[in-house]
Amino acid sequence: MTVGRASRETYILDLLAKDGSLSVSALSRDLGVSEVTVRTNLRDLESKGLLTRTHGGAQRTSVVDVLDRQRSRIDEKDRIAAAAADLVVDGDAIMIEAGTTTALVARYLTHRRGVQIVTNSTLVFAYARQNPQLKVILTGGEFHHESESLVGPVALRTIHDFNVRLAFVGTDGFTSVRGMTTQFPQGAEVLAAMRDRAEETWLLADSSKYGRAGFVSVLPLSGLAGIITDSGLAPEAAEQLTVTVPDIRIV
Fold it and tell me: What percent of the chain has pLDDT over 90?
């Protein structure tokens, strides 16, 4: 078969997610393109942090696990990230916490100039590095494979060195009673640190997260400036959230 570039990249990532590694020669044969074309595709994907090239092929990185999650509710997450990016102005200073929705914010900052981003997300870094107008500070710290994030004491010390206007954070689940929760205690520490260094903290979460409670309580919803979610949120849930959150934006 012969397919376009976007379809080739999707095929490559799907194959890596299933098999863990691949060869240039086999891809060339299966896709009906030259090995030079395959190597170009692999180089582009590596520049985005989506795989690691090897001699004669490529192997998956843990970011593929993140992308597996990112493929769910794609339209909703894109709308949420775009709405969050609209809050950012030229010359802004922001923090972006690791997460499949929060990471997408960096993709929608192409129209902004001089924005400084502090992040513990290697996926945010992969997106932001493509825009020379963005200044990115990666926290450092212990690498957590499942979330493509940097956590631990080094990450926390870095975060506490900076003051920003906006922090964009995610969650594994949120309710009016239990607030924001997560399954990952070290991730909760990073989120709380970012909240402390930001003038405004915004939760970016698709509507499927509402009503779910993770293992670790992170932050009461009253600590947020606002929530950006999608239209799948039930009207009664939105009404309940407005009691504690000043700004609910449904996109």
Answer: 65
* Residue 68: predicted pLDDT: 62
| Domain containing residue 181: CATH number | 3.40.50.1360
Q: Answer with the one of 38, 61, 84 that is the final residue of a domain.
A: 61
Exposed, middle or buried by CB within 10 Å (0-12, 13-18, 19+), for 8? buried
pLDDT of residue 105: 97
Q: What is the pLDDT of residues 62-71, one digit of tens each?
A: 555 565 665 6
Residues 22 and 107 in one domain: no
The string of pLDDT tens digits covering residues 230-241 is: 999 999 999 999
User: Domain with 42 in it: what CATH number?
Assistant: 1.10.10.10
pLDDT one-digit tens code per residue, 144-155: 877 889 999 999
Mean pLDDT of 73-94: 95
Q: Which residues of 45-72 are buried (b: 16+ CB within 10 A; e: fewer)?
A: beeebbbeeeeebbebbebbebbeebee
The domain of 201 spans 72-250
Considering the domain architecture, whether residues 52 and 152 belong to the same structural domain is answered as: no
Q: Say whether both 99 and 195 belong to one domain.
A: yes
Give the distance, in angstroms, between the CA of residue 79 and the centroid of all CA atoms in the same chain. Answer: 13
pTM more than 0.85: no
CB-count burial class (<10 Å; 0-12, 13-18, 19+) for 36: exposed
